[in-house]
Amino acid sequence: MSKAVQVGKLRVIVIGAGIVGAATAFELSSQGADVLVLDAGLPRATDASFGWINASYFENPEYHALRAEGIAAYHRLQKRLDVPVKWTGGLCWEHSDDAFTAQFEALKAQGYPCEILDQAAIAELEPALGLLPERAIRFAAEGVAEPTLIAQRFLAAAIAHGAKVARGFRVQGFAERAGRICGVKTEQGFFKADHIVVAAGTGTQALLKTLDIALPVLDRPALVLTSTPVEWRLNHVLATDFGEVRQLPNGALMTPAAIGHQGDQTTDLGAYPEAAAQRSMSRLHALFPDAGLELATMQMAYRPVPKDGFPAVGKVAPGLYAASMHSGITLGALMGELIGQEVLHGVSNETERWLASYRPSRFS
Ligand SMILES: Cc1cc2nc3c(=O)[nH]c(=O)nc-3n(C[C@H](O)[C@H](O)[C@H](O)COP(=O)(O)OP(=O)(O)OC[C@H]3O[C@@H](n4cnc5c(N)ncnc54)[C@H](O)[C@@H]3O)c2cc1C
What we know:
Blueprint: E1 11-15, H1 19-30, E2 34-39, H2 45-48, E3 52-53, H3 61-78, E4 85-86, E5 90-92, H4 97-109, E6 115-118, H5 119-125, E7 135-139, E8 143-145, H6 147-160, E9 164-167, E10 171-177, E11 180-186, E12 189-192, E13 195-198, H7 204-209, E14 217-218, E15 221-227, E16 237-240, E17 243-247, E18 253-256, H8 273-287, E19 295-302, E20 305-306, E21 312-317, E22 320-324, H9 328-345, H10 349-355
Parallel strand pairs: 1-2, 1-13, 2-9, 5-16, 13-22
Antiparallel strand pairs: 3-8, 4-8, 5-7, 6-7, 10-11, 11-12, 14-20, 15-18, 15-19, 16-17, 17-18, 21-22
The structure holds flavin-adenine dinucleotide (FAD).
């Protein structure tokens, strides 16, 4: 999707070095822009993320298509950059009865690769499972990313293309000249640019508010657990009726404490995080009774979810662009491509095709 045209040295500041900012910096710098990434070093969603790349969680066909294109974008990316993405496939028995069938039929109707497996077939694919559902849907196109490493890879590649990364700089506001945003203000001073991209995750709302631009985000705390590392026993990423589970490269099993994490609407994790963690660990023990699993880490994070649940991506003022979304891992590679295109070359039919429904102006 990248245009081969090299733009002159347009100076672009990207605020935020999470996966969305890092992917954007990579695309911009690989097309010849002079990129400066400013990052405050705040706790961020990318480091806490479950890392599932999928289009099986979706609210409508259009959003499903965007997520499926997100998967396609990773395949394009893998031809350009060595990124830690594994196409494990997803195995899903989150729903039962009619809801199970409805999910399968809806995704099949979208042309998404999916098949129903019976218990014997599941056991063959995942022999270590101690609890076997009667049936599951296998989503062959899905995979997992190691989110922190991907963001690092994007930034390293951006630096190789001449980008600069400045850490410990918290952007406080914007500088304006003749009706155009022309720089950012940090505690340590001003930085000038021709274009500025705000990819500050949950921090995007506060930054845009300094200009009276609305990009409301929901309060979506999440708790993610990992176990002590165990020997390799899980091939797929699982969406079980217990919650999602995957095995990390170091052998640890990872699970969000909320069941149905992706659609989770919880605003309060309750007064006893350790009790929530223990409940999740009991579910993991039931799934892998022989693994000797122990809780190792609990990670709290806030998910950047725009108010209606969908991504918010686009120009918000002359010289200023914003991108905030959940499922930023699934969408990261695609958003890098699209944001890079729009900042350097403007809106096109191709970028409109994917982004028209997700402009931040819907909140104004
Ligand atoms: C627990 C959890 C599980 C998830 N699971 C999945 C999943 O399985 N699949 C999926 O696709 N998505 C998942 N997500 C969502 C995904 O992780 C996020 O959508 C994505 O990481 C957002 O990336 P980002 O770059 O926009 O924001 P972030 O990763 O939050 O990065 C924002 C960056 O901006 C910087 N910043 C903020 N304010 C300022 C400022 N004023 N000045 C300078 N810098 C600033 C911060 O320091 C930070 O580095 C999950 C999220 C969470 C929390």
